[in-house]
What does this fold into?
Amino acid sequence: MNCQNKKSPKAVFSVGLLGLAMLMTGLTAAELIKITHGTDQDALITKEALDQIRSGKGTAQRYLAQYQKAADKLARRNMFVPPPDGFEPPGDCTAIFGDEARIGERWVKAGDTIGNTKVLEVGPTAVTLLWEGKKITRSPILVAADSNGSRSRQGFTEATKKEEYNKKGEVAKAIKPDVTWTEIVRDGRGLVTQKVVGYGDDNYDVIDFKYDYKGNLNEQIYTDGTRVLFDTAGKMTEKITPDGTVYNLEKMNLNTQGSQGVRKK
It folds into this structure.
């Protein structure tokens, strides 16, 4: 009788396997439910984040539109505002002939005005101007001697047959119909530091110009070593020849043809 009530080991093992299978099925189902729920929650979070981004983008665009309107209004308001008042200094002196100088399109003498600039003095190699309370100088590109006491402006203009310019638009070389030419060298301030006057291909003279820190012409040095000194107003004061002879040009009789001034002892 005891043998009949005793269960077979195979039956016990089968029941155990069935229970284990049911347990594994339950765990798998629980994991699937968890994953499905998490995916739905993540999708909801992602949707909320995208909605916030879209909402923030719209808000930013509204703010930017307001600033753009303000900027456009300010631009329209300032579009027709006239530029501030101000005067530029006169341009380069293109020529000196006797007591007159050509600046821009005008021939001027001492005492004339160019805009808000007054011509103080027309020297032999420079023009002194008063601009906004400051003295400035303009060195000529070409200097012509008035030996006859009169001038033909048209003839002088025609003398400059061709002009070559540097990158700043300043005359760097002038060539006359008789093949004589003048080359201009300038420093960073625009002041003429050297002129090379040529009389053909191989024959030429070199004139060097020295200035003080204010831009006033101090000295001219010629090819043969002759030096001409100037005062702060641009007037010639002395001429020093290569042999050391000094001439006082302030006492020079300008009406005497060929005068060399008063020789200093």
Residues 142-161, 253-263 have pLDDT under 50 and may be disordered.
